[in-house]
Each structure stands twice: as structure tokens, then as C-alpha cells.
Amino acid sequence: MYGKAFAPEYQGELSAALGVNSSYEDVLSTAGRALADAATDTDRARAALAVAEAGRRLGRVEQARAAWHESYRSARSAGDAGAMAWALWSGGTLARQCGEIALARRLLSWAVTLAADSGDRLAHGYSLAGLAETGRIQGDYAAVAELHEELLERGRAHGEARHMVWAMSGIAQMHRNTGDYAKALDLFEESVRIATAADDARGRAWSLRGVADVVSMRGEPDRALALLTEAEVICRGMDLAGALAYNHKMRGNILYRVGWYEAARVTYGIALEEFREMSEARGAALARLGLTKSRAQLGRGHRETLAELAELEGDFGRLGLKGAQAAVVAFRAELRDSVPTAHASRSAA
After folding, report:
1. Residue 349 has what pLDDT?
2. Which of 73, 76, 82, 94 has the highest count of CB atoms within 10 angstroms of its CB?
3. How far is Cα 45 from Cα 177, in angstroms, rounded to an integer?
4. Is the CB of residue 293 less than 8 Å from the CB of residue 255?
């Protein structure tokens, strides 16, 4: 069983003023006022944490970075190890967003230690989840699959719908990436049901994107595009800049798979600009790969395409994205085995 979703990153007085579905512009405004009025280090740490999370999700990287640092300093002054862990969790998540994977791992590992020592169960769970997600997006499934399952069980044990949705959709993504589409679809659809029942709009948007991806792979592009449109409405309503950019990147993938290469090129271009605006290195590199593949299908020369693929392979290597590197290698092989007018595979990274 589980209850309504809640946002433990909004703490103290902010927990009453803000909820899991608050738009991030509203969070930023409310938390900014709380930060200006903070009378204690504890209040300052809590308000700065909310500013950091809103800034990160809105793509305002420098504001988010300054805020999580302020949250950490204030928490340290207050002697609050749990609050320090929350600040480090925010900073580690921001580092991952910006492609600073080694820094993300250091900050999140530190957060795990501090949270465990402080007894803050939620900070500990979120920090472990951050480490698990970092490993998953790099393709280290053997290292993090068990942790995802453990976090799902923790969410079930404590009735935390938001954490259940996160863990379940992460497990679903691993099944999708290893070719078990039926299992992935079951898990993504269950994530949608839980998020809907728990009134977790953000979790619903991300889970709908997962369903759209898998049903597209199973040959239902129209249904997939409709699901992405539904998710996009949620993203815009909550100012979910990152989720919206990934929604657009997925739309590009689906358009590419059915051979609508010009529409895919345009959509990947939109996603790329959105990722760049929020300094999302992983998303930007994936959108660039989609653009490169679309342009190749539209007749761009092999030499230019191969040069872009070489650059992207280096970028993916620096980010530690094993799956994306494999996609580059596979597409390069297709190009070298084809004549310029032949269509390569319609699969998208």
C-alpha cells in the first residue's frame, strides 16, 4: 500500500506551502522569500535546498549550484548532518545533470554516509537512489540492478509512492535496454498507475514517456506520440524543463523509427537547444546523435556523418554512457556497409 506522493526536499514551513506537484517557478518564488526571511541556519539550509532543486529543474544551473552550496554551509553551521546530506544529494544530482559524473558519485556517496550517520531515512534513500540512477544511465546494470530492487522494496515498505515510481521505472528502463520489452512495458504501465493514484504528476509524466518508448518499439507509433503529448502537458504545467527536453528527444526517436526523418531532425533540434539551455550534457549528446542519424538519412555525406560520430563517441566515452557508445558503433557499421542512398536501421538510441 502507499499514500499520496509528497516531496521531502521541501522541509520545515515549506512543506506546508509546497507539494510534489507545485510548479517550479512557484517553488523558486516561495523558497526565495523563505531564504530571504530565514532567521536560523536550519531555516536557511531548508530554503536554499528548495531553491537549488527548483533552479536545477528549471535549468538555471548557476543558481542551483550556488543554492546547494549555501544549503550545505548553513546545515554545517547548524550541525545538522541530515540537512548536509540533502544538500549534497542536490549537488550530486546537479553534477550528474551537467555531465560531471565523477563529482556526482563523490557527492552522492558522501550524502549516503552523512544520511546514514544522521538517521535521516529519506535523505539516505534519496542519496542511494541518486547513486543507483547514476550507475543506470551509464549502463552499469550489474552494479545497480539489485539496489534498484532494494529501493523499490523500501518504497513499498514505507508506502512512498514517489520512490516506488522512481525505482520501478528505473528497473523498467533496464529491461527495455536489454530487450525485454514485455517486462519493461508492464513495469512502466504499473508506474503510471501508481503515480496517477498517488497524485504524482511528475512521476506520471516520466512513466508515460517510458510507455511511449516501448509501445513505439512494438510498432504503435501513433499511440506512443499521443502518450508523449499527454506527458508534455504535465511537463509544461509544472515547468519541468528537463522532463520536457527528454520528452522531445523521445518524440524524435519515435519519428525516426517510422522513417519521418525530417520531422525527427526538427524535433531533435528542439530538444538539443532545450538541453543546452539547462546544461544537460547527457541529453544534449543523445539529441546530437539523433540529429546526426536523421541528417544521414536525409542524404548528408558519409564523411561528415562519420566525423560527427567520432566526436560523439568521444563525448559518450567521457560521460561513461556505454549504451550510447554502442549505438554510435552500430550506426557507423551500418553506414560503412551501405551506399549513400540506402536507409540504415530505424532504431534510435
Report:
1. 47
2. 94
3. 39
4. no
What separation in angstroms does the CA of 23 have from each of 45, 79, 108? 21, 31, 26
Give per-residue burial for 291-327: e unless 16+ CB within 10 Å, then b: bbbbbbbeeeeeeebbebbeebbebbeebbbeebbeb
Q: Could you tell me the domains of the chain?
A: 1-138 (1.25.40.10), 140-235 (1.25.40.10), 240-349 (1.25.40.10)
Q: pLDDT, tens digit, for every residue of 207-260?
A: 999 999 999 999 999 999 999 999 999 999 999 999 999 999 999 999 999 999
CA 29 to chain CA centroid, Å, is 23
DSSP for 34-46 reads HHHH--SHHHHHH
How far, in Å, CA of 292 to CA of 300, rounded?
A: 9
Cell triple for residue 128? 542511494
- By CB atoms closer than 10 A (0-12, 13-18, 19+), residue 120 is buried
Is residue 51 within 8 A of residue 39, CB to CB? The reply is: no
